[in-house]
Amino acid sequence: MTARLFHVPLSPFCRKVRLSLGEKKIEVELVEERYWEQDPDFLRRNPAGKVPVLRLDGIMMSESAAICEYIEETRPEAPLLPSDPVQRLEVRRLVSWFDDKFHHEVTSKLLYERVNKKVTKQGYPDSKNVKAGAKAIKYHLDYMTWLLDHRRWLAGDVMTLADFAAAAHLSSLDYISDVDWNRSAVVKDWYAKIKSRPAFRSILADQVPGFPPPKQYNNLDF
Amino acid sequence: MTARLFHVPLSPFCRKVRLSLGEKKIEVELVEERYWEQDPDFLRRNPAGKVPVLRLDGIMMSESAAICEYIEETRPEAPLLPSDPVQRLEVRRLVSWFDDKFHHEVTSKLLYERVNKKVTKQGYPDSKNVKAGAKAIKYHLDYMTWLLDHRRWLAGDVMTLADFAAAAHLSSLDYISDVDWNRSAVVKDWYAKIKSRPAFRSILADQVPGFPPPKQYNNLDF
């Protein structure tokens, strides 16, 4: 049975799972889920009412952190977590950094205001939030710059889930032109490297009706 | 070198780490951290500016999910994660349920409004939020009831991190009398079991100035 992912294209949590699946060469059928309509069938799949929901190995899975750990444990080839506990700690710390802090300070204030509110018919962007998000992303890009000045990838010398978590958020924001790639050459180089991976292809092909992506979005030499 | 935890007493994320440390019999020195003052020393320990921060094995650690996985990987005795990947998935799904959904819908709307706002001098509780939190906790207690009708512990037949995540949130809310234990006998029994573990002792001894705990808080036969 093919894996099936219930998702929305610009969700960074769905994208992180798609990147993990892609890197592990697990084929997956993508099904767009209008999770905000809280359809009873969907709530049966995930009572938390959120995407991503992944059907894999005959199991219906939710929560992106739990899903990525499961994929890693059952498909250890092309590892996205190092074997050393201290390095694993650093990877997981950074995954939480992006999925919690960056999500709260940036993604929810830019992407959710500009796109999700319109798609789910919840009104207009709140300019106070947009302004706060636009300010906060600078600090986060600077933090990434600091990390990448010391390391080849965000959590160390190899590419990990931390890079996918970060790239998932930044790629969704890049879709709405909210990332200033000129702020940091090392961050831009890092993103160019990750963007050129085969796992990234389906993400660069995403299209959200009413929101055409800008030219640089799927350009590998942006 | 003794382990040292920078924490605040009622933070559910700190409590989850304390419960993990306690269950593994790792002695820890507790240091209260006024994280909201964003002291430069503290920001050096954790640039995310949040608690918990744990010094263990000579490393400064942040993000409770990453910390608990590290403890589990380096101290596998008294396991808090089962060995089967599907069961681990369920444990991690529920940890995220409480640390994300429950936190957002309940803890932040009750505990943060009633206590954190006062402690950090951010004004008065917003009654709209308090009302929403008081409503949402009922749904969550019902979900726990449904789980515990089918299982001995939240994620299956053994006690896991999922139980500690849930107990961390509920115990903090119980400190301000925001849990209606009469709503569900199975949830009350579950909480009595977990409350009587030695790992819970330090949590039941917590005192927050200006917020004396109610009588049932540290009563094992509540």
TrEMBL record, chains A, B:
GO molecular function, one term: glutathione transferase activity
Pfam families: GST_C_3, GST_N_3
GO biological process, alphabetically ordered: glutathione metabolic process
Residues of the GST C-terminal domain: 84-216
Domain GST N-terminal: 1-79
Keywords (A to Z) from UniProt: Transferase
Quaternary data: Homodimer.
Protein's recorded name: Glutathione S-transferase
Native source species: Sulfitobacter delicatus
Phylogenetic classification of the source organism: Bacteria, Pseudomonadati, Pseudomonadota, Alphaproteobacteria, Rhodobacterales
